[in-house]
Amino acid sequence: MKAMIGYCGLDCERCDAYLATIHDDQALREKTAKLWAELNQAPILPEHINCMGCRADGIKTVFCEHMCAIRRCALQKGVTTCGSCPELGNCQTVGAVIQNNPAAKKNLEGAAQLTDLT
Fold first, then answer.
1. CA 31 to the chain's CA centroid
2. Nearest alpha-carbon partner for 29 in 6, 10, 12, 48
3. What are the structural domain ranges in the chain?
4. Residues of the chain with pLDDT under 50
5. Contact 81, 74 (CB under 8 A)
6. CA distances (Å), 58 to each of 6, 53, 77, 107, 115, in order?
């Protein structure tokens, strides 16, 4: 499994916050902050758009670090991703992500298969 797959199955390497961070792209930070502020009806500023990935060491966005219920749950349960959680099939916490993003669901299924092999 790729290290940059988040607990929810999303690919952090495709996240605008991650891309803005690794490329030090201020224009992308500004664009992402504006979009995320509108989507979340929250005061998200360009300086909040810095992240090295959900499961990676280093800086994370305020949302990922402190507000993401999926990440919090996975850390509490000690799972590598939600794919290795026995409650995945009935989980409402990650359910919306995997329902709306087939790639995330596929990433989690791949993570579960790797867990079964170990």
1. 19
2. 48
3. 12-117
4. 114-118
5. yes
6. 14, 8, 21, 22, 25
